[in-house]
Amino acid sequence: MVESKEFLKSILDTISEHIVVINDSGDIKFVNRSWQTFGDENDCQCNTQWEDQNYLAICKSAAAHGDEFGAKAYTGINQVINQQLTEFYLEYPCHSDTESRWFMMRAVPLKLGTTGYVVISHLNITERKIAEQQVRELARIDGLTQIANRRHFDDFYEQEWSRCARLKHPLSLAMIDLDNFKSLNDNFGHLVGDICLKEVAKLLPDYTRRPGDLCARYGGEEFVLVLGNTQCHQAQKLVTRFMTALNTLQLPELAGHPLTVSIGLATIYPSSSDDAMLLIEMADSALYQAKEAGRNQLVIADNIEPLNIEQCP
Ligand SMILES: Nc1nc2c(ncn2[C@@H]2O[C@H](COP(=O)(O)OP(=O)(O)OP(=O)(O)O)[C@@H](O)[C@H]2O)c(=O)[nH]1
Question: Which domain of life is it from (predicted)?
């Protein structure tokens, strides 16, 4: 029997999942070598005497310190103990100072005679999580220009609108449309058209550097700048600098033909009761005016004059 116990323990020690077995009160009754090693490598304070620890108390203490995963683990494991769940899964981050890591916890009941236990295993799922993150990132980037796509813009803009409404900050938005792009495509070919789009997109991130800023491809030959907590005159400066940079852009493919844009700029103090489309419509109609006035210019929407911050309620 002793031999077979040793044999089974040796097998559990070869498994890369971290395994801990607790009784119905949460007292730790067994940990495998992976668990022990992970504790040692991560400076876990209780690593030398795991068998003296209470796993549920550890989860509860983590929860009390604001760790939502500690709280979920505590609830889930208790549900397994109380037979409300036949198994419990939890994916959670466990980052070290140097690397991002994620684990999946699985808790299943184990009955030996009259004594109830729970076997809890932790599987490292970092590779899958990183792959998922990369897929998510790709879904937010425009394939041609490598800046944010429309979907990313929609999400970002909605969040920035709410953030500025909450903090009573001004929000500026610039709609940028390449001029006469159809004839550029017709004269120089679509590949040259694509190069122009990429060159414009390369310039834009220089004007959207703050966390509340974003440049995105809005669609076709249209780009958008979101400038959170930015007054109209500040946004005007940024947009004007962008137009100057574009004027000096030399594109050999265009054989001396200048690449110009028309821009509509609008600023608003968002309110949670307003429709976030309002600012987009304002910038859009200013852009329309810029086109009507002969292109290659900036028009600022003047239908809502931004308030001075002190005047805001
Ligand atoms: N090369 C290329 N062309 C595109 C892309 N997306 C949209 N276009 C073209 O951009 C052109 C936009 O044409 P219009 O909407 O008439 O605008 P415009 O010719 O720039 O005229 P104005 O905006 O009034 O100055 C169309 O010919 C589209 O086919 C793209 O990804 N690559």
Answer: Bacteria
Whole-model pTM over 0.80: no
Reported as a pLDDT band with limits 50, 70 and 90, residue 90 is very high
Contact of 243 with 298, CB cutoff 8 Å: yes
| Domain CATH number, residue 56 | 3.30.450.20
Q: Quick one: 295 and 179 in the same domain?
A: yes
Same domain (yes/no): 112, 159: no
| 41 in catalytic set | no
The last residue of a domain, from among 69, 100, 129? 129
Residue 135 lies inside a defined structural domain of this protein = no
For residue 146, what are the domain limits?
140-311
State in Å: Cα 182 to ligand 1 middle. 5
CA of 281 to the centre of ligand 1 (A): 20
The answer for residues whose C-beta is within 8 angstroms of residue 233's C-beta and 6 or more apart is none
Contact 32, 131 (CB under 8 A): no
Q: Do 120 and 105 contact (CB within 8 A), yes or no?
A: yes
Q: Over 50: is that where the pLDDT of 305 sits? A: no
Pocket of ligand 1 (CB under 6 A): 144, 177-182, 185, 190, 193-194, 197, 220-221, 291, 295
Q: In a mutational test of the pocket of ligand 1, which residue from 185, 191, 299 has the highest number of ligand atoms less than 8 Å from its CB?
A: 185
Question: Looking at ligand 1, which atom is closest to the CA of residue 181?
Answer: 20
**Could you tell me if 281 and 246 are in contact, meaning their C-beta atoms sit under 8 angstroms apart?**
no
